[in-house]
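idk why but the lab printer keeps eating my pages so im just putting this in chat instead. protein + calcium ion:
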Amino acid sequence: MARRVVLDCDTGTDDAIAIMLAAARPELDLVAVTAVWGNHAVEHTADNSRRVLDLIGRTDVPVYAGRGAPVDPPPGVPAPRGSAEPDTLPLPPPTQQVEAQDAVEWLVETARAATEPFTLVPTGSLSNVAAAIAADPSFVEAIDELVVMGGVIERGGSLPDVETNVGYDPEAAQLVLDAGFERLVLVPLDATYRAIVTSEQRATLRPLGRAASVAAGFIEQRIASYRTLPAMNGRAAAPVHDALTIAYLVDPTLVTLSAATVRVHTGDSPTRGRTDITLGTGEVQVAVDADADRFFDLVRESLAQL
Ligand code: RIB
Ligand code: CA
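predcted complex ->
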């Protein structure tokens, strides 16, 4: 039976590809998309999610819009800036409305009514998930696995010190880490930067159909903005961060996991948003590596199904 998955995203280009993969895979049953602020305002992330689902003919998947701001920011700390990407994905306006119900309410109600657990995959700020836990701490019991794209292990190298999903709402991230999920997998930048997609690989997607061609365009846009970053070391390539969470669900052997303890720098500290990730023992499973070639094979094979 396909695994029931809810994607909680701040849809820009990499969340969009995560949605496509989740919808394409027969192993997964994409129950709903809940939109959250992050890359863009929640109105845009909900609209973008709808556009992607329209593109791939999945108008049956409902989209709910949730939190548009951090859950409990310290006074005086300025709101983080979103992505430099345009707010709206270059796709036709959606034919279906975003659902009237609030995403957090829907998550809490769905968890309460669930007779079988479901998998939740947050790939934006953790504000929706934290709000759901705050509304009902037993929310966590309905989730068999929480797979979060967020955080960064290594500091002082070529990766940013603060990963944006955690940095957008550090208090929410810490609350989620402390909430007692049965299994919590964190996919940090260290893993997503190991699974970069090159310009040559991207070119092989174009002939595979409309959705794959759109995904190729998104990846090209990402390569244009990443190629000058030190982490790319001059290569024409880019990470597609959020897609790695779905690839992991389909084939967990694509990533290497390590038990870890994770703490988030919160409050008005100058290091706000950083993650202290200590590998070895702990309640969180952290992806420390990823197989780039097998990741891309899975992306290509999945997009070809759409
Ligand atoms: O740091 C990468 C993450 O931030 C991705 O989820 C991207 O979509 C942005 O939200
Ligand atoms: Ca995202």
